[in-house]
Design brief:
319 residues; mainly alpha; Ferritin; 2 domains; 76% helix
Length: 319
């Protein structure tokens, strides 16, 4: 059962302040640990914030000892009404740097509001003085965080972290999505056009293409998500990678399947071939843009593969 803040004694308020500072310090330490490999400058910033929280905690403990002795009751935010419920984002690996910074801003604002309310519930002069000082420090914490960011996130460090962020984006989103798009765009060509040239019916070709696209998306999604858990490779959540791969595989197959909704077989086939050319060109550009592959080399690899698969479907369907 939660307790109302107005019903807390001064002893409980101090105990709550101590546990809150300890929790914030641990969270900042988790942020620093999670970001140290990819974002070392930001990790150092959070380490500095952890040290500040530790200083606040020590001053609160000293005040508690002077007034109430050595036994500090265990009371946390979740035992008191009015506090925001925090999502355990600091336990997620890999941790997004922007998520960590936004969480820190919320923590700072909440700490400031807590001390302002605590002052109104305290009558002891020395305790009020300490809480006022901590409130002022928390009020300035945003500026402190800015100073820490300016100190640790130099232009060189920011450039390095931007490059690291781009690398993570490539590993976690672009590469799985590109693999899915390539597979969906190429592997579904053979069954789609085999059905089209075998039956000369748009409806039959559409059903085969739809089944091939969705089936390939499911298969590729599970294959990617089960390939590794990302803990050693740094490729991120397997479910996110699997979802990106599966969706892009399905999208790649549906691109040249949708034209077969047109009843005229010859018109649908012509549009589907044009769509295939656009898809292969887009894949070549993405490889050039994000994977640093020379455009002509990427275009040659993708287009030759696509043509071979298309011809496979054509000859099988026409036989």
């Amino acid at each position: 059962m939660l307790k109302k803040f107005k019903d807390l004694s001064e002893r409980e308020i101090l105990a709550l302040a101590i546990s809150s500072e300890e929790e914030d310090g641990r969270i900042y330490a988790e942020f620093a640990d999670a970001l140290r490999e990819s974002y070392p400058a930001t990790a150092q910033m959070f380490e500095g914030m952890r040290e500040e929280e530790a200083g606040h905690r020590d001053r609160l403990i000293e005040m508690f000892r002077q007034r109430f002795g050595e036994l500090i009751p265990l009371i946390r935010r979740e035992n008191v009404k009015g506090f925001l419920r925090r999502n355990p984002t600091w336990l997620v690996r890999p941790l997004g740097v922007n998520v960590a910074r936004r969480q820190a801003e919320v923590m700072e604002m909440e700490a400031q509001r807590f001390y302002v309310r605590a002052i109104a519930r305290t009558t002891d002069a020395s305790t009020r003085e300490l809480l006022n000082k901590l409130a002022d420090e928390e009020r300035k914490h945003t500026q402190t965080a800015g100073d820490l960011e300016e100190k640790h996130l130099t232009l060189t460090a920011k450039a390095a972290e931007d490059a690291s962020h781009k690398k993570l984006f490539l590993l976690q989103i672009v590469q799985p999505g590109l693999a899915g798009l390539m597979d969906g765009s190429v592997s579904t060509l053979a069954p789609l056009f085999a059905a089209a040239f075998a039956t000369h019916k748009s409806s039959d070709a559409f059903l085969v293409g739809l089944a091939a696209s969705v089936g390939a998306g499911i298969s590729m999604g599970f294959a990617e998500s089960l390939s590794d858990d990302g803990s050693l490779t740094g490729r991120g959540s397997p479910w996110i990678r699997g979802l990106a791969t599966g969706l892009m595989t399905t999208a790649g197959g549906l691109g040249h399947t949708m034209p077969f909704l047109i009843s005229s077989f010859h018109v649908a086939t012509l549009i589907a071939i044009i769509v295939v050319c656009v898809e292969l060109t887009a894949i070549a550009y993405i490889r050039h843009r994000y994977m640093d592959t020379p455009f002509l080399q990427a275009a040659f690899q993708v287009i030759v593969g696509g043509i071979l698969v298309f011809l496979t479907g054509y000859f099988i369907g026409s036989s």
